[in-house]
Every structure is written in C-alpha cells, then in structure tokens.
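Final report, section 2: Outcomes. Of the targets proposed, DUF1330 domain-containing protein is the one most frequently requested by collaborating groups, and we therefore present its record in full.
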Amino acid sequence: MAIDPTGADLKAYLSVDPDEPVTMLNLLRFVEGGRARYDEYIAHFRRTSGRFGAEVVYYGYGGAPVVAEDGQAWDAVLLVRYPSRRAFSDMVRDPEYQKGTHLRTEALVEALLQPTTPTERIMEP
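The predicted structure is given below as tokens.
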C-alpha cells in the first residue's frame, strides 16, 4: 500500500478545484515503534508547513474502536486545514518540507489521506 502521494495522485487531486480550501483527514497505522518517529515528523511538519498556510486542527492517537471490523482500527488521526488544494500540493513539493518526509515514511505501514470540504448544510439535532 502506498503511503506517500505520487505525482499522478497530486495531479488528480488538483484537477478538482485547486483554489478550494480543504481539510485533509489522515488515518495512520504505525510500524512497530513508529509512533515516536511520527511525532518527530509532526514537529518537522509544524516547523515547515506554516509558510503554506497549513493549520493542524487535531492530532490524536486512536483507541479501541466502537464500531469496526477486525483490522480497521487506526493508530492515529490527523486533521490539517489548508487554504487551498494548491497550497497542500506546493507544500508536498517544497524541498525544505521534503527533508523530513522520511520520518513519516519510516513511521507508517499504512495511511489514508482523504481531502474533505465543509458542507454548507447544517445538521439539525
């Protein structure tokens, strides 16, 4: 399973609406000992991503799932808000950011990066 976006992935991602704000959902499964390595990546991310307007909304470790099939539990969840899809793509290609991506790659056995956009619809209780 791929854990890092490819050039083709980014091209498809930008084809939707490159100037649309996006919040990226990251579902993360660590290799043995990967949690500490990913925490190093988060520190690197925080140092380098601000130039692109990225904002960590939430980063937390997963617990036992309430509803899930065997093997569906994730070790951590990360939500990052970007001012645009293009900002995410620019960050991923940035040489300074790329200096720390090995930390992410080494930490993960599996990842899901899901772009999300806010709904205008408000759910009624």
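Helices lie at 7-14, 34-48, 85-93, 95-98, 101-107.
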